[in-house]
Amino acid sequence: MPAYPTSGITPGYGAYQPNPGFEVPLYANVRGPRTDDGVPLSGWWWRVLATLLDYVVLSLLGVVYGNFLPDYSTGLNRWLQDYLEVASSGSGNFPSFTDPQYGLTGSLLIYALVSLLLAVIYATLMLTFKGATIGMLACQLRVVPTGRGRAQAGLPFGKAVLRCAAYQVLGYIPLLGIINWLFPLWDKKRQTLHDKIAGTQVVRLA
Questions:
Q1: pLDDT score for 182
Q2: How far apart are CA 195 and CA 41, in angstroms?
Q3: Which residues make Cβ contacts (< 8 Å) with residue 88, sequence separation at least 6?
Q4: Fewer CB within 10 Å, N- or C-terminus of the chain?
């Protein structure tokens, strides 16, 4: 009677169990490029969706702090009313929001600076403590150091600041901001330019 191997057999069940030390590879059914330690990189559309969700979050915050700028909210409402009146009349002579009568120029500058500062603080803190922004968490994405997809902690503070600052600076440079966002479509590591500057990659955990 032939002898059958008994290692890996659980007594009483007869089911095969992997030998000690054997691990099923993570994300075995996921195709596409990965980090050096085997975690799948995020697709471009998932990153776009996460950014749009973050934009919604920041826009809601903008509505809140915009109310603390009286000249901004009052002037914006006056300009919007005049704009709608012209649109309904069909004259086509639309008012400019830079017209001194609305007093928006200074308020818009302050609003823009506050928005920029808030965006950097928001992204930096989220990446430092969670490794992802709210939009990324909703899409099950994480930002990790290049090649270290299994890293559990958030980004080091300095790396998070550098990534956020590079993203903002590139965004204000004509054409380069667009190239930055499209870069993962042809980059082997699916990195944006601000990822390359900061030494990060974006992975998807599902």
A1: 96
A2: 13
A3: none
A4: N
Between 75-79, 86-90, 103-107, 138-142, the lowest mean confidence (pLDDT) is in 103-107
What separation in angstroms does the CA of 162 have from each of 136, 146, 176, 178? 18, 14, 17, 19
- Residue in 30, 48, 24, 36 with CA at minimum distance from that of residue 141: 48
At 124-138, the pLDDT tens digits run 999 999 999 999 999
Which amino acid, 8? G
The two structure tokens encoding residue 201: 């990659």
The label of the residue with tokens 């200074």 reads 106
What's the CA dihedral at 96, 99, 101, 105 to 10 degrees? 110
Residue ranges of domains in the chain = 44-73+110-204
Residue 142 phi/psi, 5-degree rounding, is -140, 150
- Its pTM stands at 0.73
CA angle 123, 199, 184 (to 5 degrees): 80
Look up residue 183 and give its two tokens: 């870069």
Q: Which runs of consecutive H residues, i.e. helices, occur in 67-156?
A: 70-89, 104-129, 134-138
The identity of residue 82, as a single letter, is D
Looking at residue 13, its pLDDT comes to 39
Predicted local confidence at residue 4, as pLDDT: 46
Least confident among 42-51, 103-112, 123-132: 103-112
DSSP string, 150-192: T--S---HHHHHHHHHHHHHHHTSTTHHHHHHHGGGT-TT---
